[in-house]
Amino acid sequence: MQELSVRHLLGIKDITAEDLQLIFETADNFKDVLNRPIKKVPSLRDITIANVFFENSTRTRLSFELAEKRLSADVINFSSSGSSVKKGETLLDTVNNILAMKVDMIVMRHSSPGAPHFLSRHIDANIVNAGDGTHEHPTQALLDSFSIREKLGEVAGKKVVIVGDILHSRVALSNIFALQKLGAEVMVCGPVTLLPKYIKELGVKVELDVRKALAWCDVANVLRIQLERQQMKYFPSLREYTLYYGIDKKMLDSLDKEIVLMHPGPINRGVELSSDAADSHHSIILNQVENGVAIRMAVLYLLASKK
């Protein structure tokens, strides 16, 4: 059997194009499983996985938990809000205490960029990064690229624009790495204040006019405005942001071609996307959610075989 080139999934930056294809092919098989009447397989029956979330998450945590249970793994859920972290316990102490309970794999979300990388140097379990600060969110990028592949047949040669709050987004960075490794052309679009200074060094196109960006692309991946990560005002008001960067169905219908609309969720309806756009035939947002479980099953299964 083919295997991944890495022991941990810390970021898309660390994996190869072959790894991406292997994850997608494995996810194809698991997607078939998820559409059967009995949705469970015994693949990880002897594996214990801890979901260690130091930051709030609904969809990612549920998606991982469902993926783990579909693979018959034993699952422990840990969230920092009711834990000894509030009493001053360090990250390493917290995780070592969990590992002392004989855990094989850790799925971790943390507000500090690089936290999973730090842990991977100090502990023996496989680690999956479920989002580290404004750095990376690898499984989201995998499910996004997988959804494009499913909808359009392949990712290579496609034009993908990422619209919105690029500066605070871990989804944007992981997506840029994944799409480039798969041979897509990538553009970012948003207000200058929400684009990182280093963005051109990543080899992406930059466009400030959302209408021009939509006219260029095959796929638009629209990001949420992350007000919770913004310590200062990056634009005058949400109303003004919507006026210049909000996407609605009228705008999509005015294009002379069909484009695919994506969003990593949760959507601020009426801000970055209107409801009629989010619910239109252009949108594959619910497919992304469904594909998230298959992709996470594939990642967990492939990493478990690297023990």
Automatic annotation (TrEMBL):
Q: Which SUPFAM superfamilies does the entry mention?
A: Aspartate/ornithine carbamoyltransferase (SSF53671)
Quote one Gene Ontology molecular function term: aspartate carbamoyltransferase activity
Reactions this protein catalyses: carbamoyl phosphate + L-aspartate = N-carbamoyl-L-aspartate + phosphate + H(+)
- EC annotation from Swiss-Prot or TrEMBL: 2.1.3.2
Looking at the record, the residues that make up the Aspartate/ornithine carbamoyltransferase carbamoyl-P binding domain are 7-150
Taxonomically, which superkingdom?
Answer: Bacteria
KW Transferase (keyword) present: yes
Entry-linked HAMAP family: Asp_carb_tr
Biological role = Catalyzes the condensation of carbamoyl phosphate and aspartate to form carbamoyl aspartate and inorganic phosphate, the committed step in the de novo pyrimidine nucleotide biosynthesis pathway.
> What protein name is recorded for this chain?
Aspartate carbamoyltransferase
Give the source species. Answer: Pontibacter aquaedesilientis
What taxonomic classification does the UniProt entry list for its organism?
A: Bacteria, Pseudomonadati, Bacteroidota, Cytophagia, Cytophagales
